[in-house]
Specification:
The chain is built from 5 helices and 7 strands. Helix 1 packs across helix 5. By secondary structure, it is α/β, with parallel strands linked by helices.
Length: 141
């Protein structure tokens, strides 16, 4: 299910991510979602932090949003940091807001959710880290 490294979708999304919504963002700095969001923001990428359990809190200079529907502009990538069994509702939300792509972070593999996203026409990256791929493809490292 992993997206091949040569996949043009992976290359395009990692180097030209547009607006990213990090779903499952944690305000705790030691969590992977926090590190990825901080990196994206540091690269000048418009990034929204989404977590209904932390909605209204501040992190990385932003207010954490409750849902994808709260993002005030078109979302290009929904970057998912949720347990595999919890990702189908995120995919359905991505479809509702007409996002362009879903990015399943490392070890977040749910075949049904992946198939749903692909069948609905979303661009999909699976089992890759957006931070790592952006650094590798955009900056050669």
């Amino acid at each position: 299910m992993t997206t091949p490294l040569t996949d043009p979708i992976l290359n395009d999304l990692a180097t030209n991510p547009g607006v990213v919504a990090v779903v499952g963002f944690s305000p705790r700095p030691y969590r992977p979602s926090h590190g990825v969001a901080a990196y994206l923001i540091s690269q000048g990428i418009t990034t929204y932090l989404v977590n209904p359990m932390a909605a209204g809190q501040s992190a990385l200079g932003q207010t954490i949003l409750a849902s994808l529907a709260d993002v005030p502009e078109h979302i290009h990538i929904v970057d998912i940091f949720r347990r595999p069994e919890e990702v189908m509702p995120v995919v359905e939300d991505a479809l509702r807001v007409k996002a362009d792509a879903v990015w399943f972070q490392l070890d977040i593999i749910n075949p049904d959710a992946i198939a749903r996203a692909r069948d609905a026409g979303l661009r999909v990256v699976v089992d890759r880290c957006l931070k790592v791929e952006h650094a590798r493809l955009a900056h050669g490292g």
